[in-house]
């Protein structure tokens, strides 16, 4: 069986990186809409994404696996450096594994809130109402642990370092969050720091680094979210 190791299957770990060249085909996916239709579509998409909020209180209602699979397939359509798709998603639904992840994450978070966080950090986090207590890691039906594949180990022990691996994983993660929201699910990008325990608990290889833990499910009925403002267009963009 071909074991995925890095971005290449191990049959390819021969010291030379040879990617199949399947040639070129006409572009089919880009639709040439009329301007009014483009405006309508962009407004509808914006309106949908403006409703997305990170939530920290989840229902235990299970999520259809097929929905998660489709959203992961959507994430994998994201552009990536040299099209290597240098990431791996571990979908955790097993209660014992979620329990282990919660215990390890809370241990790190206790350190963070008690010692590691600077006063500036704590001040910025205060409006979010977060603390070291992370019950959602067990209550939410799905935890998607996202790993960056930093390199492929070549024959002879040489490393091929994947170009823009973290950026590529971030872009794919953004598409995943958007796809899950579009499907009607809530997420929380959770970053207990350091996250090395995820590699240990989920038995990931040494070329992978934990990137993010995406808590996924339905919001609890009594979920509240902090009243926050998003930056305006002029704050986030400059047109020259
Ligand atoms: N990891 C901590 C602190 C935290 C960090 C960020 I960046 C946030 O956006 C929110 C919280 C926690 O999850 O509580």
* Fraction in helix: 25-40%
* Spatial strand sequence of the major β-sheet: 3-4-8-7
Note the beta-strand portion.
15-25%
SSE string, helices as H and strands as E? EEHHEHHHEEEHEHEH
Rg over CA atoms, rounded to whole Å, is 20 Å
Q: Which of globular, elongated, flat, extended, rod-shaped describes the shape? A: globular
Query: Can you list the ligands bound to this structure?
Result: 3-iodo-tyrosine
Largest sheet: 4 strands, antiparallel
Mean pLDDT: 93
Helix run count = 8
Description:
- By secondary structure, the chain is an alpha+beta fold.
- 37% of the residues lie in helices and 16% in strands.
- The chain contains eight helices and eight strands; from the N terminus they run ββααβαααβββαβαβα.
- The protein has helices spanning 35-50, 65-75, 95-116, 119-125, 136-139, 165-182, 196-201, 233-236; strands at 4-5, 8-9, 87-92, 142-149, 151-153, 159-161, 186-190, 208-217.
- The strands form three sheets. It has a four-stranded antiparallel sheet with strand order 3-4-8-7.
- Helix 2 (65-75) packs across helix 6.
- The chain is globular, with a radius of gyration of 20 Å.
- The termini are far apart.
- The structure holds 3-iodo-tyrosine.
């Amino acid at each position: 069986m071909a074991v995925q190791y890095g971005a290449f299957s191990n049959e390819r770990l021969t010291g030379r990186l040879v990617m199949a060249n399947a040639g070129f085909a006409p572009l089919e996916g880009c639709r040439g809409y009329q301007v009014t239709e483009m405006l309508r579509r962009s407004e509808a998409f914006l309106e949908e994404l403006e409703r997305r909020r990170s939530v920290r209180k989840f229902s235990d209602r299970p999520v259809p696996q097929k929905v998660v699979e489709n959203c992961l397939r959507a994430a994998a359509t994201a552009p990536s450096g040299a099209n290597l798709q240098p990431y791996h998603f571990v979908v955790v639904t097993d209660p014992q594994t979620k329990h282990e992840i919660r215990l390890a994450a809370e241990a790190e978070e206790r350190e963070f809130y008690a010692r590691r966080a600077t006063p500036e950090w704590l001040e910025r986090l205060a409006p979010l109402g977060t603390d070291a207590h992370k019950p959602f890691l067990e209550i939410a039906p799905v935890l998607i642990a996202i790993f960056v594949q930093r390199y492929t180990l070549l024959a002879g022990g040489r490393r091929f370092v994947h170009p823009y691996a973290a950026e590529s994983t971030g872009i794919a993660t953004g598409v995943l969050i958007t796809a899950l929201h579009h499907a009607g699910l809530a997420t929380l990008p959770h970053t207990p720091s350091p996250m090395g325990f995820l590699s240990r608990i989920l038995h990931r290889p040494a070329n992978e680094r934990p990137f993010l833990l995406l808590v996924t499910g339905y919001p609890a009925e009594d979920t509240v979210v902090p009243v926050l403002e998003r930056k305006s267009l002029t704050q986030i963009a400059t047109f020259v």
